[in-house]
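Worked problem 6 (solution included).
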Amino acid sequence: MTMNSLQDSDSSIIKALRGKGYKATPQRIAIGQFILHNHAHPTAQRIYSEVKKVYPTVSLATIYKTVQILKEAGLIQELNLEKDKARFDPNMKPHAHLVCLQCKSINDCTGSMISEIVDRMSNEADFSAEEWNFDIFGLCSNCRQKKSI
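Solution. The predicted structure is:
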């Protein structure tokens, strides 16, 4: 992560917060930084436990409110791949998620093949896809190895 990309993300976080009438407190900026630089698709509870290490007085309510602001600003997306356990993704470009049914890890899958599939399906249905989510459920390599032992 370069210094410029950190400054850009901080600027985006501050702009999103102020745009909704909230102060850009160090806690809220830390929440935004953790989400925007974490590609493991963290839950609100995971964000809370990590930010609390640096800001012990941060509340879970602040986590949820900040996440909502970042979603509304288009900086993150909410993934509802498990019942009652939202995860957050800073990758706003169209991509697929590979979701492990055992360890619950989520990995982004990008590439032209997925876009080609969406384009082909859209063309065949005479449909113009504006947004899409593509989630594939299975077992990651680590869980497959554990299962075969």
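Discussion: The longest strand covers residues 77-82.
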